[in-house]
Amino acid sequence: MRCHDIHKSFGTGEAKVDVLRGIDFTAAMGGMTFLVGPSGCGKTTLISVIAGLLEATSGRVELFGTEVAALSSRDRILFRRKNLGFVFQQYNLLPSLSAAENAAVPLLAAGMPRKAALDKASQVLDRLGLGSRTKALPKILSGGQQQRVALARALVHEPRLVICDEPTAALDAESGHSVMELLSRTAVHPDRAVIVVSHDNRVFHFADRLAYMNDGSITKTEMQTAWSA
Questions:
Q1: What gap in Å lies between CA 85 and CA 164, rounded to an integer?
Q2: I need a surface site. Which of 1, 64, 205, 223 has the fewest CB within 10 A?
């Protein structure tokens, strides 16, 4: 995943706001790259551009050799559905669906038969410690359990890029550590890049690489020694 000189502005004239100011950013396969910085510095805008949810004002994003902005709207959706998995801060689970049904959504959207999709989703949930909760609705799950369902949904279709937007922000320290440990052990793969957006310095030690962001720019990057439990 490569970003080349990404600029993103909103508004025009005197109301114009420059949110991203010449971002060069990479995330390597087989590792977990943290994008860190204070609220409002442009982190969420950057990952939205990376995912093709927003178009950059200028610059280029390449995912696995494909320039996302050059794709048609339909092809962009298909590319994102196949190659990207998302873990959201507020989980974004569908309240009327069970844990397994929520986790199976990407497979069902891709046309997999329902039984096969639910079976695969249940297997992923079992690996995440929720094998006994596959039929539970989100409202009876704890915050940490809901985040595990969200993680299962992000991984179930075996994407090549997983993007996590503040995955521990709504969790206490113990639950946040548990979710990050699971993310590190299950999402990191030689054929996958993982980007984690966070300002929670309690979990920075899980990163292989830290990219610090402030006021729309990457100010520095640093490698870290792999963590151990």
A1: 8
A2: 223
* Domain at 2-8+32-223, CATH from 2.40.37.10, 3.30.420.240, 3.40.50.720, 3.40.50.300: 3.40.50.300
- pTM for the full model? 0.91
Mapping DSSP to helix (H, G, I), strand (E, B) and coil, where does residue 150 land? helix
Distance CA 192, CA 56 (A): 24
Percent of the chain with pLDDT over 70: 98
For the chain, strand residue ranges (E) read 2-10, 17-26, 32-36, 58-63, 66-67, 84-87, 161-165, 193-198, 209-214, 217-223
Give the CA-trace dihedral at 80, 81, 82, 83, to 10 degrees.
40
Helices 143-155 and 114-127 pack at an angle, to 10 degrees, of: 120
Beta bridge partners of 60: 4
